[in-house]
Amino acid sequence: MKKIGMLYGQERSFPLAFVERVNAKQVEGVEAEAVHINQVMQGVSTNYAVIFDRISQDVPFYRAYLKNAALCGAAVINNPFWFSADEKFFNNCLATKINVPVPKTVILPSNALPTDTSEASFSNLAFPLDWDSIFNHIGFPAYMKPHAGGGWKSVYQLNSKEEFFEKYAETDQLVMLLQEEIKFEEYYRCYCIGGKYVRIMPYEPRNPHHLRYAAEFTPTPERYQQMEEIVLRICRYLGYDFNTVELAIRDGVPYAIDFCNPAPDADLASVGASNFEWVVETAATYAIERALMQVEDQDNLTWGEYIKRSAIKTKLY
């Protein structure tokens, strides 16, 4: 029996619907359940062919569990090794190399010294930074947000350098991004599952959270195809099985704003009934595909084009 495990935290609507949908399909030799953990021993299989991860970004114990499971052959959605390594600044850096438009962005050291460091730990860092050069490059208005993490936490809209320094002082040990504001005419949030299934959803980030999917933007067929190609290119390079990409349209150009969302919102109350139905059905279909392909004691993870191409180059030396 190929077991598909759903690993989740406080959310309920998507994980429970996913398990129910997989089992409702009655694929011979495949069943789904909530992951159950009562011990984790090194090098010992979990007995899951596929594990769908919705919570390890918040629980380090689960991340370690998933890496061990992957080592023993589980197909983990998303790859826990890449999930651990990735962050938003690298995403933007990669985008500049694969011809995806992104806002001008710089990374900033934490305002407060990290725990167990001192000023001597930063011998290689100029102080102060060249703030005038940074502000001239990014311009105002601008956005400041953590270089890792999500959920619209610690995100600031800034209109001047004075406001920047005021808010930067609040960020404590967070490493922040300062990013050009893209004044958009349209905005879309796009699910990508399995590097092949895409759902483009009109989205209005300026609305209250529960109304953000109530936007009425309507892309032309040409724009839809253009956005779909960008979403697929990003997710295939990063290697995510399940991700969302946010695209802001300015002067006809789709800018990728946020595309490091390996545990994206899929709650019925926020995404709405039609989007929820799509993500449940598509995630269930894809997880079954992965279960049927899984081979015990082999690497069944998805690796992105960036990693695969780097590995090929390494073999040449």
Molecular structure report:
The protein is of the alpha/beta class and 317 residues long. Among the domains are: 2-78 and 284-290, 3-Layer(aba) Sandwich (Rossmann fold), CATH 3.40.50; 104-180, Dna Ligase, domain 1, CATH 3.30.1490.20. The protein has ten helices and twelve strands. The protein has helices spanning 13-24, 60-71, 80-85, 88-97, 131-138, 161-168, 221-238, 268-271, 273-293, 305-315, and strands spanning 2-7, 30-34, 50-53, 75-77, 105-108, 142-146, 156-158, 176-180, 186-193, 197-202, 242-250, 253-258. The strands form three sheets. It has a four-stranded parallel β-sheet, sandwiched between helices. The protein is globular, with a radius of gyration of 21 Å. The mean pLDDT is 95.
Brief overview, please?
With 317 residues, the chain is an alpha/beta fold. Among the domains are: 2-78 and 284-290, Rossmann fold, CATH 3.40.50.20; 104-180, ATP-grasp fold, A domain (Dna Ligase, domain 1, 2-Layer Sandwich), CATH 3.30.1490.
